[in-house]
Amino acid sequence: NTLCKLFAESESPQNGVIVHSDLLLDYLKKTYPGLYFVSSTTKVLTDFKDFKQELEREDFRFVVPDFRLNKQVEKLNALPQALKDKAEFLCNECCWFGCTERRRCYEAVSRKNLGEVCEHRCTAPGAQEGYRFSKAMRSPGFIGTDDIWQRYLPAGFSQFKIEGRGLGSALVLEFLLYYMTKPEYQLQVREEIYLDNMLDLF
User: 132: closest CA among 169, 168, 97, 94?
Assistant: First the structure.
């Protein structure tokens, strides 16, 4: 509530909250009408019809579909522009494309964040390796920079989400270099950060 109150007081830029629960959404709408709302990928919207219905809800400025919908090009391109403007794609998800426990995994993370004891052991192939950007790049749902420039932007999509804020500074740097730095400048940016001792690698 304290954070939402502070965020709601800012007029420019307008702040938003990512939400999963409709109960929480109703509360936030009534209590902090100055905020905008984003439908979370933790809803695991893997059915395109569900995703489209979520896009059609006036409650949300943006909707983040499950990453397995990222490449359903024909259905995505058929959306009206107003709905395309609300679609926000998760680009670099590393989760196994065939995962059936994604919702349980998100719930376990949420419960741990609340301080609850909640154990969930991922049984997906390669789960013991943890996050690997190279593995994410091999996923059928991966959205690379070429995809953004050549497929999504020309089709009218403009919102993209990078996963991994809790993965450590070295990985976050790689995401920022890949998605937000021109290739010819990536090495120079790496060197500046490494040599300035700003990056906590350990």
Answer: 94
Contact predicate 199/169, CB 8 Å: yes
pLDDT per position as a tens digit, 124-174? 777 777 788 898 999 999 999 999 999 999 999 999 999 887 787 788 888
Tokens linked to 184: 């010819």
Q: What is the pLDDT of residue 199?
A: 55
Which stretches of the chain score pLDDT less than 50? Answer: 202
DSSP string of 41-88, one letter each residue: GGG---SHHHHHHHHH-TT-SEE---GGGTT-HHHHHTS-HHHHTTBE
Contact, 200 vs 172, CB < 8 A?
no
Which positions ≥6 away from 7 have C-beta within 8 Å?
15, 17, 32, 35
Tell me the C-alpha to C-alpha distance, in Å, between residue 123 and each of 19, 36, 120, 130: 27, 36, 9, 12
Q: State residue 200's pLDDT score.
A: 57
Count of beta carbons in the 10 Å neighbourhood of residue 102: 20
CA 193/CA 190 separation, integer angstroms: 5
Q: Which tokens go with 23?
A: 């109960």
Residue 198 has what pLDDT?
Answer: 56
